[in-house]
Amino acid sequence: MEGERVMFLKGETVYLRPPELSDVPHMTRWINDLEVSKYLIVRTPMSTLSEEEWVKKQGKEDNSIYLEIVLKDGDKPIGNLSLHGIRSFDHNASLGIMIGEKAYWSNGYGSEAIKLLLSHAFNYLNLHKVSLCVLASNERAQKAYKKCGFVATGREPEEVFVDGRYEDMIFMSILRRDFLNP
């Protein structure tokens, strides 16, 4: 049916789907909001054209999965997440997430989305480990990651420059067995 959206992974309150060109306006707004992007690796301004190119490229990458996080109620996109750097020989990948709509921060939507993607990673992609890195000052994200079963595995002092000062980077991961048997 024309205009019908793909629901790749479905949860109770959110579903995950591939990004579409119609997502570019809100994606561009999110990435250019310094309050949203200050915890991301990409902290440079992005144009609508560069976001369009990014969306077009996503279906062509074999070692990454990028998805929009959409509220079921109202079909509203609120963020995105990814598994990137998927290494099939090692059965490992890295996770990234951004809730771009600040009104939806700290409501559990990110945790639900992460759990959906982890279930796919471990049950379908047969991954062994999913890792991530987070700034030490991003306590909200650390809380969400721990809620999903991630554990801290290391810390790199003064790794990233944010808001005029250097920040420590915390490394976290979750193993398949720990996700499947909490």
Topology:
Blueprint: E1 9-10, E2 14-17, H1 24-31, H2 34-37, H3 48-58, E3 65-71, E4 76-87, E5 92-99, H4 109-123, E6 129-135, H5 139-147, E7 151-162, E8 165-175, H6 176-180
Parallel strand pairs: 5-6
Antiparallel strand pairs: 1-2, 2-3, 3-4, 4-5, 6-8, 7-8
How do you describe this structure in short?
By secondary structure, this protein is α+β, with helices and mostly antiparallel strands. It is built from 6 helices and 8 strands.
Task: Please provide a written account of the structure.
The protein is an alpha+beta fold. It has helices at about 25-30, 35, 50-60, 110-125, 140-145, 175-180, and strands spanning about 10, 15, 65-70, 75-85, 90-100, 130-135, 150-160, 165-175. The longest helix has 15 residues, at about 110-125. The model has no long low-confidence stretch (mean pLDDT about 90). The chain has one domain (about 10-180): 3-Layer(aba) Sandwich (Aminopeptidase). It is built from six helices and eight strands. Helix 1 packs across helix 3. The radius of gyration is 16 Å and the shape is globular. An eight-stranded mixed sheet has the order 1-2-3-4-5-6-8-7, sandwiched between helices.
